[in-house]
């Protein structure tokens, strides 16, 4: 579905990704893993078109998309939940969700009732300000907002960061349900190996801007973790 080949990009004159390769299969959850600062968020931002592709090719269902701006990628079916969630604190929960519909080009987006099948808590707090929600509630809100664009691929940057353990389980069950019931493909950056193992079908490990290991999640054994993920 999404294929990234030989991606080189960075910030200003600093190269961060030095030829990264990654694929997300249709209907699969792929976890992008790696130590702090190796370039995981940079991969997601380049996939969304928030950073230019300096070298390499990004393909969506076989078609090159490297030159497309972010809003065109959103219309193709990319949904993005950024690190830190980026909820608008002064707007209500309902307004924050509807913004996801504007982003995909709708003039007066209505929230489909079935969205709340996945987020019953949000339904009870539609009039509350986004800034008054807990981290876990904001994460649900950010996912709901991304779903308003009816994505085929959901890209999540550390969805469990700063979230209480009981809500981590909730986020996992929501993402798993969206994957199983709606066939949504998922690319997610994660620091918690246990979470990645439970949620992912495949993994890719990044180190210093390059992919150093990838495969099916069952093959992510302790030797791979020791070599590439534990702090040495
Ligand atoms: N806006 C920016 N301007 C300049 N350098 C940046 C910027 N954002 C990130 N970097 C640098 O790019 C490198 C990769 O950062 P990135 O956020 O992609 O890593 P990461 O693997 O997602 O890290 P973390 O797990 O800490 O979120 C780091 O050295 C970081 O300092």
From TrEMBL:
It holds the Pfam family ABC_tran. Transmembrane segments: none annotated. The keyword Iron does not apply. PROSITE patterns: ABC_TRANSPORTER_2. The keyword Transmembrane helix does not apply. Residues 2-231 form the ABC transporter domain. One of its GO terms (molecular function) is branched-chain amino acid transmembrane transporter activity. SMART domains: AAA (SM00382). One of its GO terms (biological process) is L-amino acid transport. InterPro entries: AAA+_ATPase, ABC_transporter-like_ATP-bd, ABC_transptr_urea_ATP-bd_UrtE, BCAA_Transport_ATP-bd_LivF, P-loop_NTPase. Keywords: Amino-acid transport, ATP-binding, Nucleotide-binding, Transport. It comes from the Bacteria. Belongs to the ABC transporter superfamily. This is Urea ABC transporter ATP-binding subunit UrtE.
């Amino acid at each position: 579905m999404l294929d990234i080949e030989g991606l080189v990009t960075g910030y200003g004159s600093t190269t961060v990704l030095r030829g990264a390769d990654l694929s997300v299969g249709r209907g699969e959850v792929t976890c992008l893993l790696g130590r702090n600062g190796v370039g995981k968020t940079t991969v997601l931002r380049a996939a969304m078109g928030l950073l230019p592709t300096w070298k390499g090719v990004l393909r969506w269902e076989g078609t090159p998309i490297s030159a497309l701006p972010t809003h065109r990628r959103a219309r193709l079916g990319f949904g993005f939940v950024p690190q830190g969630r980026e909820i608008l604190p002064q707007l209500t929960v309902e307004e924050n969700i509807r913004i996801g519909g504007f982003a995909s080009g709708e003039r007066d987006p209505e929230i489909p009732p079935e969205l709340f099948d996945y987020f019953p808590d949000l339904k009870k707090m539609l009039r509350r300000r986004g800034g008054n929600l807990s981290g876990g509630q904001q994460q649900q809100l950010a996912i709901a907002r991304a779903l308003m664009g009816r994505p085929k691929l959901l890209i999540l940057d550390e969805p469990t960061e700063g979230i209480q353990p009981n809500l981590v389980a909730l986020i996992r069950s929501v993402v798993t349900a969206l994957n199983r019931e709606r066939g949504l493909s998922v690319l997610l950056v994660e620091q918690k190996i246990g979470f990645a193992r439970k949620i992912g079908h495949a993994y890719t490990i990044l180190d210093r801007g390059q992919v150093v290991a990838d495969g099916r999640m069952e093959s992510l054994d302790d030797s791979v973790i020791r070599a590439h993920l534990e702090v040495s």
